[in-house]
Amino acid sequence: MTTNVPALDAGAAAAGPRRNFLDVATGFWSWASTLDHKRIGLMYLVGVSLAFLCGGLFALLVRLHLWEPHGTLFSNADYNQIFTLHGAFMVFLFVIPAIPGSLGNILLPLMLGAKDVALPRLNLLSFYLWLVGAALATLAIVFGGFDTGWTFYTPYSLYTEQAVVTIGLAVFVLGFSSIFTGLNFIVTVHKLRAPGMTWFRMPLFVWALYATSLLQVLATPVLGITVLLVAFERLYHVGIFDPRLGGDPVLFEHFFWFYSHPAVYIMVLPAFGIISELVSVHSRKPVFGYKLIAYSSIAIAVISFLVWGHHMFTSGQSTYAMFAFSFLTFFVAIPTAIKEFSWVATVWRGSIALNSPMLYTLAFLIIFSIGGLTGVILGALAVNLHLHDTYFVVAHFHYVMMGSIAVAFFAGLHHWWPKIFGVMYDEFLAKIACGIIFVGFNATFIPQFIMGSRGMPRRYATYVPDYTDFHKASTIGAIVLGCGIALMVYYLVASLFQRRQAMQNHWGGVTLEWHAPTPPPVENFTTPPVVTTEVYDYSTLDLDTMRRPVQ
Amino acid sequence: MSHDGHHAVVIPAPGPEFQPHTVAHHFDTPVQEFQSAKLGFWLFLATEILLFGGLFAAYFYFHEMYPETFRLGGKQLDWQLGALNTAVLLASSWTMAMGVRAAQTSQKKLLLRYCGLTVLGALIFMAVKFVEYSAKDAHGFVVFADLFAPYDTATGQIPWFQDYDGHMAGVPHGHLFFAIYLTMTAIHGLHVLIGAGLILWIMKGAAKGRFHAGYYLPVDLVGLYWHLVDLIWIFLFPLLYLVP
Ligand SMILES: [Cu+2]
């Protein structure tokens, strides 16, 4: 994409060290009160990364506990809390906000050629709401913890003597953080595109964020009122979810999954967006089926509102509803497969550079194929009844949540790291870490597929000895995975101190963010960009600029 | 000069009693700023409707499940007070709309007066609500003093639902109607209070001359919010007071 931006040539070379968004101001307050989308994105990045490490720690504790059939570390009650904490931290504090909050915030205005998101104050509010939510979630641990699973199913969540109200409030607040991010992005995409940036010149990451935002705005309020009602139920016995009081716990499941199925796509669509960018840049080839990928994001968003019942095949809902939900679930596979095939077709005969972001991307493509296809298996009504609430389900959604979404997040982080910070991490270590993560991840969850298909139920603190070998393999895998992630954290953080210069356009991308100086200044572009060519047109790549080191 | 070296866009004040408005740095034109805020606010209103949508879904679900309970429960509500409040809110929506009009035509005093009337409407609404809640309290439909008292699993007695006169005896789960009534009207009442607070904030800005024909965006948005609060009540009133 060419623009009239002389940014890299003029601004950078001339007058001494250029001020970028990182060093334009210093001190705690300059960050805490910033309205710059890039700084807010970085604060999100730190926040969600810490939440991810906490959630990961809980995961390791779960796996270590399951080393022996009778459990090794905790009482059964404590185990219930640990796996609930793992789920709640990962879902609400990491997977949902991670990509939109951090990379989305930093890149969306840059990719559109805008100076900021449309509503910068609301953006900062989103982040503070995230912080409040994180604080409440942590307080809930202090107030006695919660052992309901991340799904807060009634009636148990109404009866348990634990801090369900506090965590409910945390989820409510986090919901509004997510809503405000989505709302902001929708307005930004509609109103702040640079001249010439038509809808079909937008990078696919922007399309993905747009579809995600629609879901955030349209689904999250229902979760908000649902957790609020659970809190009210506990506070003054409304009765609508409590069977003792004439209520219906299955109604809770309907409410909950009406949000939480679309939430799966709130989590995964931004990951799809990252992959769409990366397969193109690292194959130096326009994305195959650009429009189909863009439309398929919207199609997934629409269909995702119609399939929530597939989480409830054993809840006693009507048989005919189950037929419909199962059938509709298969439909999600169509736009999803369109994406997967388009990515593969993009790589095909491309000039593939096996950089670390590309390795993470390839890991995603493999893992997501498995995660997606096992989802179709689970969507089949008869098979679902057999596999319901087993480790097969656990393995399936970890292939999507951890193996696909988190890996895509890592891929994006590696890809845009030199853009954001102007420094490069150790590529050699990055490739090693990617390999360790890939091996560790599969070693953790392939045994879970097998034992799940053989009947191992999820969420149990103990198990029959027949499953011991699978659990041990899974735990070893989790430790390997943990080591890979620790290595990744190490070299990424170390790169900030070693300050090895990155190139201005480190990988040779042509979307607008690579036209901005590296790292970008506060106003993003030195001259407002005007877009005159199609997206992913690599004939426009300016190799001299690309190879110029960052000052 | 803003920090990035571009001149900021300023909308001049139409008179000495008004203030000019500086367009935020990341917008190129006032129209872009106006449209962005407006689109964002409409989306926010959509989330409010969806939030209440959950409550309405619960209402319809239990209305289907226990029609007798809802028929009898609705009879215990005072439809005349409900109608009065509907009239008050409708009138306040009109005063708010007139307030927006006054802002658009740079009539500072008129804007303040109409906003004041709207806040008055909000207060009357809440006062009537208080009278209504007291009556429910007196009949033991909602004993507010015991609202958060623990639930006795042995007797199955909900502490806040006493039904002193036995109006709801003979229908299953009489408390359900009142629980839904209380939850919906209380959350709506909270919105009325927030709306009143926002209008007071508008009045503060209006007194300083911030709003005029060139810039009345916040007045417009708070107006939209107030109409939504009104609209939700338009649905609540017949569902709770009349449908049964
Ligand atoms: Cu689902």
What does this structure look like?
The complex is a heterodimer of chains A (551) and B (244). Chain A is mainly α and 551 residues long. Chain A has a single domain (40-547), classed as Cytochrome c oxidase-like, subunit I domain (Cytochrome C Oxidase, Chain A), CATH 1.20.210.10. In chain A, 67% of the residues lie in helices and 0% in strands. Chain A contains 17 helices and no strands. In chain A, α3 packs parallel to α5 (120-142), α4 (76-112) runs antiparallel to α8 (204-236) and α12 runs parallel beside α15. Chain A starts with 6 loop residues before the first helix and ends in a 5-residue tail after the last helix. The model of chain A is unreliable at 1-16 (pLDDT under 50). Chain B is mostly helical. Chain B has one domain: Cytochrome c oxidase, subunit III, four-helix bundle (Four Helix Bundle (Hemerythrin (Met), subunit A)). In chain B, 67% of the residues lie in helices and 2% in strands. Chain B has helices spanning 30-65, 67-76, 79-104, 108-139, 174-207, 217-242; strands at residues 10-11, 21-22. A two-stranded antiparallel sheet of chain B has the order 1-2. The termini of chain B are far apart. Mean pLDDT of chain B is 92; it is low at 1-5. Chain A binds chain B through residues 114-120, 122, 179, 183-184, 186-188, 190-192, 217-218, 220-222, 224-226, 229, 232, 235-240, 244-248, 251, 255, 521-523, 528, and chain B through 3-4, 6, 24-26, 28, 32, 35-37, 39-40, 43-44, 46-48, 50-55, 57-58, 61-62, 65-66, 147-148, 151, 153, 156, 158, 160, 172-173, 175-176, 179-180, 183. The complex binds copper (II) ion. Copper (II) ion binds at residues 261, 264, 307, 310-311 of chain A. Copper (II) ion is lined by residues 261, 264, 307, 310-311 of chain A.
- Helix and strand content put the structural class of chain B at mainly alpha
- Taking pLDDT < 50 over at least 5 consecutive residues as the criterion, the unreliable ranges of chain B are 1-5
Task: Supply Rg of chain A.
Answer: 23 Å
Distance between the termini of chain A: 24 Å
Biggest sheet of chain B: strands, sense, closure?
2 strands, antiparallel
* Largest interface, Cβ cutoff 8 Å: A-B, 44 and 44 residues
CATH topology name of chain B, in short, is Four Helix Bundle (Hemerythrin (Met), subunit A)
